[in-house]
Amino acid sequence: MYRFNALLSSADRTETTAPVPPTAPENVGPLNAERLACLHRYWSAANYLCVGQIYLKANALLREPLRAEHIKPRLLGHWGTSVGQNFIYVHVNRLISERGVETVFISGPGHGGPAMNACAWLEGTYSEVHPSITRDEVGMLRLFRSFSTPGGIPSHCGPHTPNSLHEGGELGYSLMHAFGAAFDNPDLLVACVIGDGEAETCPLEGSWKSVHFLDPRRDGAVLPILHLNGYKISGPTVEARLSHEDLIDLYRGRGYQPVVVAGDDLPGMHQRFAAALDACHDTIRQIQRDARERGVPVRARWPLIILRSPKGWTGPKVVDGLPVEGTFRAHQVPLATVVSNPEHLQQLEAWMRSYAPQSLFDERGTLRQELQALTPPAALRMGAVASVNGGRRLVALDLPDIADYGLEVPQPGEVIAEAPRKLGEYLRDVMRNNPYNFRVFGPDETNSNRLNAVFDASDRTAAGPCLEVDDHLAADGRVMEVLSEHLCEGWLEGYLLTGRHGMWSTYEAFAQTVDSMVTQHAKWLQQCREFAWRRPLASLNILLTSHAWRNDHNGFSHQSTGFVDNVLQRRSDVIRVYYPPDSNCLVNVFDHCLRSRNCINVITCGKQPDFQWLSPHQAREHCSRGASIWPFASNDQNQLPDVVLACAGDVPTTEAVAASWLLQKHVPGIRVRLVNVVDLGVLSAPEIRPHGFDTASFEALFTAQAPVMFAFHGSTWVIHSMVHGRANEARFHVRGFSDRGTTTTPFDMVVLNTMSRYQLAIDALSHIPRLREDAAQAVIFFEAQLRRHHVWIREHFEDLPEIRNWQWTSDFSESQQPPPLAIGHVKRQPFTDA
Fold it and tell me: 457 and 603 share a domain?
């Protein structure tokens, strides 16, 4: 028979590395006989409930022989990881009860939902938030019937699980969430279970470095528990095949003090794991004591437990002549044909009865009193602590007055500035006002993204010793920088999920690295709305800068707008997308986002010097509406315009305003209206997006029939999908990022993607029949300018003077025209190639 321990030597099977003495007798440890027996029975109760969730729709306590009609028609769920997680959970409960430590449990191994449901039901928190799932036989059966069935609950952790704080349907994010939860949470212990399959993912692999950012003076502690049970769905895991010595070397190199607990012998495993857990907590308390009493940072080697136990432990050992326990066959449903195979049905009944359910639950189906005594005090149950339902501890930010961060703009386009500079000043004061519950996260780009004013309030968090040459680096810094989008965004999620506030800034092109993470967080927020007991959380605020249109110097690798494409596929009650066109709008938008709850706010705004269009007062009014007509760039005088030039995004706004200037200058009599959109969602109907414009409001901006030339920051399909269903939607003609780019000039980027002022103007004129003859010379001029541009940048390596020196004027003077003869000297050739 294949056994889990076949890979381990006899010495390895019982080895536990320091701080537990390796020579300790196998069955000797901190548990007395009574406590050991009760703890083992409690574990058996959790295991029984896991099996019941996977298989049973009737006969919850096996009060009669098990029959095929008691079995669910579809068997779903994951047994292999559940039993190990139950083992850890029960032992952590014992630690909490004995030491009174506030703890949250993060379940990393994917679909380990049965374990978390079972443990929450045993401790009572599941019934408190789901009153119909009572703590008796009736409630037990309802729990079983709800698991992985229509109208029920999924097979992984989610918002329905009171002892879970993150969406468990995707692997890789547990450890970064754990550290995010521990930051600024000095009394919290985060027990984070990492599956050995999950340990193979890139996000998790990068998460181990988080330990270097933990400050024991002000932060809580994370106890990673790497659960090596040997296999994924069908193959072995990498780290499960490493020797103890290699694992210890690996994790010592990562900055941890690893403790290995391995085997399948009982009660020895209970004693060894309990001893390891006590020793690790002693180490944590000593680290924190040293740091807090001395008041200086301690570069600690934090503990980590490596638990090696069989996959599907205590389950069927052999099925149909093939080994199951300790193999990949235990991953999901070990007995898959119970309804049609009497032998499997007998094995299932024997398996479930091996836990002796009548000794675990009384006549009512309630956990027996002596076992309930192992549950931590009510306020310390892992499904009841405030941090696992972060909205319970959320305190609104003390936000400064945005009027103090206004940029004076005497006339539209008269000032050129880097928009994020003022936002940096605003965030600096947010950090000053909220020193314990607000952090800024991002790759090594805070300076690059023009947010460096935040360093007046706090330094970067040092991940190691500080040197004299370092810039704004300190052990107590609150600006979290590391070159991993996964880690920065995941830390922020953990920070928010436990009731705090923050923001993440990154280069637009590389935000897509965390598309899947943001998707999972959105799903968590969406589902939280279904449970009134899940209190609202601070929103996930994302600033995308260094964007596609102004990464002309870095080239095509840095030019992508796809992050928004992904988030817009999430439900509209969670997602908000903003394109502030200038500094004053950016500060207004961010202030609003920091006040919002249960949203993912994506704000895109460039960092390069650009035109500033609106005064602080105008920006506040504009942002409060979400979109508005810009009178200074319009000349329709409230009449029906010949064309509406719409724009969303800073560079598209510049091009649209310049296109309006060109049209008014070169086509006398044309009526142009310019509409700027800062909140993308307003384009949709309110039945599609709750903050969308109704028909009257929409047509007050875009009319019901005028052609609309829309210059958009991102993919053209986004606008078309937003205005779908509006009157005469075919009149919307969108120009946006079409995945054309290279190392080139700023203006050439918009030309390559057919969104330049000249192309917008040509497109507009093609949709105004009454001006076709009057506009012919203007079109020739605009086309010639594009050809001239193509040649000029290859000769001079910079944009045309009339592009570089252009600014908005209302008199349309001749001074900004190119030399009259310049056009005639340009050789005709395609202008769209790179």
Answer: yes
Rounded to a whole number of angstroms, the distance between the first and last alpha carbons of the chain is 66
Q: Which ranges of 419-458 would DSSP assign to H, the alpha helix?
A: 420-433
**Closest CA relative to residue 153, chosen from 162, 163, 143:** 143
Residue 153, Ramachandran bin (φ over 0: left; ψ between -120 and 50: alpha; else beta): beta
Per-position DSSP letters for 362-412, written without gaps between them: -TTSPBPHHHHTTSPPGGGSTTTSGGGGGGGG-----PPPGGGGPPP-SST
3-state secondary structure of 132: coil
Tokens of 56: 């049973």
175 and 228 co-located in one domain: yes
Cα-to-chain-centroid distance, residue 529: 17
Q: Specify the number of domains making up the chain.
A: 3
Q: What is the pLDDT of residue 419?
A: 95
- Whether 622 is in a domain gets the answer no
List b or e across 210-246, with b for residues whose CB sees 16 or more CB atoms inside 10 angstroms. bbebbbbbbbbbbbbbbbbbbbbeeeebebbebebee
Chain-centroid distance of CA 114 in Å reads 24
In CATH, what number is assigned to the domain containing residue 657?
3.40.50.920
Please state the φ and ψ torsions of residue 311, each to the nearest 5 degrees. -65, 130
For residue 501, give the 3-state DSSP assignment: strand
Q: For residues 121 and 133, is the Cβ–Cβ distance under 8 A?
A: yes
Contact 387, 219 (CB under 8 A): no
Co-location of 471 and 540 in the same domain? yes
Angstrom distance (rounded) from CA 739 to CA 749? 10
453/332 same-domain check: no
pLDDT reported for residue 830: 32
In what helix (H) or strand (E) does residue 322 lie, and over which residues does it extend?
Answer: strand 322-323
Q: Are residues 508 and 365 in the same domain?
A: no
640 residue type, one letter: L
Residue 183, phi then psi, degrees to nearest 5: -60, 130
Phi, psi of 286 (to 5 degrees): -70, -40
Structure tokens at 360: 């675990």
- Given the DSSP bridges, would you call strands 302-308 and 256-262 parallel, antiparallel or unpaired? parallel
- Residues 107-147 have pLDDT tens digits of 998 678 999 999 999 999 999 999 999 999 999 999 999 99
Predicted local distance difference test score (pLDDT) of residue 504:
97
**Which of these, 503, 575, 570, 495, lies nearest to 540 by C-alpha position?**
503
Q: How high is the pLDDT of residue 824? A: 27
CA distance linking residue 736 with residue 718, whole number of Å: 10
| Residue 385: Cβ within 10 Å count | 23
635 and 569 in a common domain: no
- pLDDT given at position 1: 33
- Judge whether 564 and 192 are in contact, CB under 8 Å: no
The pLDDT assigned to 810 comes to: 82
- The answer to whether residue 833 is domain-embedded is no
- CA atoms 501, 506, 509, 514: torsion sign: negative
- b/e per residue, 358-382, with b = 16+ CB within 10 A? eebbeeebbbbeebeebbbeeebbb
**776 in the same domain as 634:** yes
Identify the pLDDT of residue 13: 33
Bridge partners (DSSP) listed for residue 65: none
Identify the segments of the chain with pLDDT beneath 70. Answer: 1-27, 110, 812-834
Structure confidence at residue 109 (pLDDT):
84
Do 591 and 773 contact (CB within 8 A), yes or no?
no
pLDDT of residue 812: 67
Q: Which residues contact 143 (CB under 8 A, 6 or more apart)?
A: 49, 52, 53, 117, 121, 126, 133
